[in-house]
């Protein structure tokens, strides 16, 4: 969708901002550009909507060389979200959001209707916020209006330059999550600049890690964290990349342990036999409809006598995560519940449990898979083991 071919930019004073950039952002892909200050991220992005012209190479959007497209028309096809948001202070939130549809000639009523829809989509009730002015909003709300405005004309491409930079970390995380949920629905082709590796990893389908004016590595978050291509990338992603990797590695059914299962209404002696046969010290307990209730120990079952039920002995344990969730979520649940395992569910169905040992194995598996993918013979497990 966006294709860079050997693109370079030398500013008039002789500064080379970027050099020999070649990459492609696929349709519906969210690519993050990450790197230290001054490495050329913003220059890269602003060349896509021709706010900056490259000095060499060419850029194609939707297969068309943008050098031949009128910049004003081009920008109508490309939504642009920046950190300072740049809302018009004297226009209401609704009118701000309707700016681009109005510019491209939509009737006023239709433009406003569309604006209201978009405000709703970014979590701002148009009835409450539509008639306010930007100064009457919080920083996070202004940022949402910025996203709504960029999406209002339904452009296929979205450029975002530090879009969540100006808000505190809590709001930032919420906006990131909201944007990811939104992106699931609207599937724009997005180029997002950030200097924050955590944000790049959370948001990007792929990450381009910039060195000085060039891309050092362009790959999935898991691959960048698992097998940094150069020592520079390894330093940039940080020595805790094993920990960061927890947030991008999904729990898969093969990672799970399958302890014996007992039912609440079952006789304790029957369950005890099953545990003995399996050589297990505990079992997961499910209720009558197969939902997670908790666990029960082999010792408790053995001491129950003939008439006791599992239900009388079971302990509640509510730590669970959906299959496919990141390992980090499982780890966090374990810590929160002070538990040695967490149940993994597929919808309401119990699949198995993840233990710390299995979690470590799952991390290794994903590092191995990536290492094979990029043909690397040696993988440095140090930071993974630290996790
Ligand atoms: N108009 C300009 N004239 C000369 N040099 C410029 C100009 N704009 C940017 N540069 C230089 O080009 C390089 C890349 O700048 P750019 O703004 O693309 O970096 P960045 O990675 O986005 O940085 P930051 O994270 O700080 O925004 C820097 O060395 C910068 O000083």
Automatic annotation (TrEMBL):
Superkingdom of origin organism: Bacteria
Pfam families, A to Z: ABC_tran, CBS
Ranges for domain ABC transporter: 2-237
Phosphoprotein found in the keyword field: no
GO MF entries: ATP binding
Keyword terms, alphabetized: ATP-binding, Nucleotide-binding, Repeat, Transport
Keyword Protease: no
Family per record: Belongs to the ABC transporter superfamily.
Protein name (record): Betaine/proline/choline family ABC transporter ATP-binding protein
Native species: Streptomyces stephensoniae
């Amino acid at each position: 969708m966006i294709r860079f071919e050997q693109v370079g930019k030398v500013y008039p004073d002789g500064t080379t901002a970027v050099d020999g950039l070649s990459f492609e952002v696929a349709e519906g892909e969210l690519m993050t550009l990450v790197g230290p200050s001054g490495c050329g991220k913003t220059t890269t992005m602003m060349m896509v909507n021709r706010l900056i012209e490259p000095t060499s190479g060419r850029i194609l959007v939707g297969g068309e060389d943008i050098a031949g497209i009128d910049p004003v028309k081009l920008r109508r096809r490309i939504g642009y979200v920046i950190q300072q948001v740049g809302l018009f202070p004297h226009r209401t939130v609704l009118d701000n959001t309707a700016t681009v549809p109005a510019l491209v000639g939509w009737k006023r009523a239709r433009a406003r209707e569309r604006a209201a829809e978009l405000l709703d989509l970014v979590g701002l009730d148009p009835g409450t916020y539509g008639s306010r002015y930007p100064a009457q909003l919080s920083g996070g709300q202004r940022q949402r209006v910025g996203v709504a405005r960029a999406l209002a004309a339904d452009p296929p491409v979205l450029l975002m330059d530090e879009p969540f930079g100006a808000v505190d970390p809590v709001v930032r995380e919420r906006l990131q999550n909201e944007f990811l949920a939104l992106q699931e629905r609207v599937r724009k082709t997005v180029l997002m600049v950030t200097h924050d590796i955590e944000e790049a990893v959370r948001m990007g389908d792929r990450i381009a890690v910039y060195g000085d004016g060039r891309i050092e590595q362009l790959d999935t978050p898991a691959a960048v964290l698992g097998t940094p291509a150069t020592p520079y990338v390894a330093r940039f992603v940080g020595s805790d990349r094993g920990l960061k990797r927890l947030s991008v590695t999904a729990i898969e059914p093969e990672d799970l342990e399958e302890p014996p299962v007992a039912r609440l209404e079952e006789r304790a002696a029957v369950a005890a036999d099953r545990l003995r046969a399996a050589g297990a010290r505990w079992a997961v307990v499910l209720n009558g409809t197969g939902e997670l209730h908790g666990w029960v120990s082999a010792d408790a079952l053995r001491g129950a006598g003939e008439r006791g039920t599992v239900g009388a002995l079971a302990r509640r344990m509510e730590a669970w995560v959906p299959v496919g969730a990141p390992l980090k979520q499982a780890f966090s649940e374990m810590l929160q519940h002070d538990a040695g395992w967490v149940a993994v569910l597929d919808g309401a169905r119990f699949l198995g449990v993840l233990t710390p040992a299995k979690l470590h194995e799952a991390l290794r598996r994903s590092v191995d898979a990536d290492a094979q993918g990029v043909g690397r013979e040696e993988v440095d497990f140090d930071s993974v083991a630290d996790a």
